[in-house]
Every structure is written in structure tokens, then in C-alpha cells.
Amino acid sequence: MFLQIADRMVNDVPAPAAVRTCKADELIGAPMTRRTLLLIDNRPLDKIAELSDWMNPTELDAPAARVLIDGSADETAKRRAAAELLAAPAYLIYRLDLVAAPVALGVKDLKIGTIGGRLFRYDKTGRPVCVVLFTFQNDQAKSDAAIARSRASAFIDPAVAKAMRDDLHEQYLKHAPRPVGTSTDP
Fold this sequence. Notes:
Elements: H1 2-11, E1 20-21, E2 30-33, H2 34-40, H3 63-68, H4 75-87, E3 91-100, E4 114-122, E5 128-137, H5 140-150, H6 158-175
Parallel strand pairs: 1-5, 2-3
Antiparallel strand pairs: 3-4, 4-5
Helix pairs in contact: 1-2, 5-6
């Protein structure tokens, strides 16, 4: 049953202004990243930054969602996890729309990484109800240091790119809108 809801949420992504803005007290439900939702729905992941593992913190996923994508979880655990998700009052899906982070991607375009996304609230049947828009950037000091280190080189050092990816992961956890009653501390 949850796979039918997951499939509906994968296929029913409203345009930016097609649903109203969520009120803070409406952010109740089982959260998960779009990447996790696609994996639950057995969809292939496009090779794009928006679906990369480093840009989709599993820390944002409900524990039950993590069980459903765990290849080592047994069928009993997966059935319990699906039942837990079915009991959720709603679903909160983090969807990244923009990863403008050239240094993190290893591209020598020396500017701060900027990420834009939406947090959709879907009802129990998988229909979109409302949305919260969010953006965040690399930490300014870390970005400045990475840019300074990269100026003299013809390419982005893989260690610098990784440091910027790790920082974006940290910033996502710090700045992402959260379900009611959860901490914003990474």
C-alpha cells in the first residue's frame, strides 16, 4: 500500500505556485528526501547533483524510510517500516531544484555554492497539500578559503570539492525546514 502512495508522490510534483505555502504548524508527518522516495519506489536515480547522496542527507529521513531503502533489512522490518509510514499523518518530501555549487562539483567557477529546494507536504493519500521554499549556501568562510586555495590551480582539487560537498551537507541539515517538534541542530 505505501508503494502506491510513494508512486503517487513521485509522479505528482506540483509546479512552484500550484500549491499554497505551508504554515509552520502544518509541517507534521514522515519526512524524507526525494532521493529516498525514489529508492523506496524502486526508481532509477538520474546522475544529477540534485539526487546525489551528499545532497540528500539521510538524517532528514524518517527512520522507517531508512529501513525501506536498507538492502540488509529483512522483510519483517520492511513491513513494519511500511506500516509505520502508513500510520503517519502526512509525508514531507524534500526536493532539491537547484544545485549551483561549481566548486563542490569540481568545476572551476569560483563562487559560493547555492542550493534551492522545496519541502512538500503530501496528505496520507500522496496528494500535495502545501510547500515551503528554502535556500542555503556554503559557509562563507569555508567557501572563501576554498576559492582562495583554488585560484592558482587550473582545476579544483578533489579534496577542496569534497570539503565543499561536506559543508553543503552540513548547511542543509542546519537550514532545512523541519517537521514540527524536531530540532534544527545537525
